[in-house]
Amino acid sequence: MNKKTVAVTAFALFSLFFGAGNLILPPLLGFKSGELWGWVTVGFCISAVLIPILGILAHAKLQGTMFDFAKKVSPTFSLIYCYIVYTISIALPSPRTASVTHEMAIQPVWDSSPLLTSLIYFVLVYVFVINRSKILDVVGKWLTPAILIILISIVVLATFGQNLQFGASEFNNSFSHGLLEGYQTFDAIGAVVVGGVIIISINLKQQNTPYELKKKLIARAGIFAGLGLFLVYAGLIFTGALFNDAFDHDITRTLLLSGVSKETLGNNATFFLSVLVSLACFTTAVGIVTGTADFIKGRFNESILAYRITAFIGCVLGVLVGQFNVGYIIAVALPALMFIYPITIILILLNVLSEKWASPIVFRSVVVATILFSIPDFFGSIGYGEIISPFTQWIPLGEYHMGWLLPALVIFTLGNWVEQSKN
């Protein structure tokens, strides 16, 4: 395992993670957090960096598919969970990449319809997905370095071109706002989806490599990718905070990023931003569609036909949903995230732990507790917040939409106490 292989894999991981939400969410967070941008950064990076990288470490340990993440609960639950996650992934974050590309890269230059953008975009995605054996090299060697160069330029120019003064924060609790906004990156879900893509890509190129070497490769690449994500997110949030007084506070995510880019990159901003958005979004869409197609292929006895049909369906969904505006897709995604994200976080954390602390009984009980206490947040996100408020006010951390956290921790502790007392 040489350094070049680790670097290429780390770059590929970073690029598969870093898509539409990762690009447009942090600047607005920083813009609205002002002087409290540091707390927002901590919260955001817990849900958008730490948990996803733990997901990659879990993949390094399991070296299987997403099905292996939840099979300790039960095979049936794992199958249902996989289908829900893959359906959400190809129906929301994947199309959102096309929507962001249209609003930020195409619309400012050409007066074309979003449907045309989505159509051309997902035709290209399909071509990449069908040639999946080349994904790791193309993404890792070429696309990620281009993304990083443009991002670093924006952050550095903003830092040296602005007075280091910040306005007042709009948030009552900056940490929880950052944490929950990190859900919208889909990175925890991305970890279990694109992590599988990385596993299969490595197996295609290094079929005879021992388990332990592949484990080290994936783990090291994951850590380096996580460090890159952290630096980029912190830089974008910090940059947004620097422009706290430069734009109207009702500005949209995409317009803010465009405005910041023009302030830092000058007259060439439109071109550089178009390249950045297109590359960042495209690599994520490729990773999501590939991961979904890989999973279905595995369910149908490694059928190439099943792989191609799934990739085609994923791209058709991308075309249909990708023509809607970014704000609408983000709003539609919220209820699904409030329910599936806590379950995904818990599965990632349990899979990282050793077998001693994560027995099948502990798995089942903690996941059940997480599901039950995620239901209020789900109903709150679809407009029933006032109706369920008499119940949620009694749940610790319920007001921060994290009512599932303490019950899951309590059940985890009790489950392990019971298990250890048997021995």
TrEMBL record:
Transmembrane domains' residue ranges: 36-60, 72-92, 112-130, 142-162, 182-202, 223-243, 271-293, 305-322, 328-349, 361-380, 400-418
GO molecular function, a single term: L-leucine transmembrane transporter activity
InterPro entries in the cross-refs: Brnchd-chn_aa_trnsp_Livcs (IPR004685)
Keyword RNA-binding among UniProt keywords: no
Cellular component terms (Gene Ontology): plasma membrane
Record localization: Cell membrane
GO BP, one annotated term: isoleucine transport
Membrane topology field: Multi-pass membrane protein
UniProt entry keywords in alphabetical sequence: Amino-acid transport, Cell membrane, Membrane, Transmembrane, Transmembrane helix, Transport
Family: Belongs to the branched chain amino acid transporter family.
NCBIfam families: livcs (TIGR00796)
Name the UniProt record assigns to this protein: Branched-chain amino acid transport system II carrier protein
Species annotation: Flagellimonas ochracea
Lineage summary: Bacteria, Pseudomonadati, Bacteroidota, Flavobacteriia, Flavobacteriales
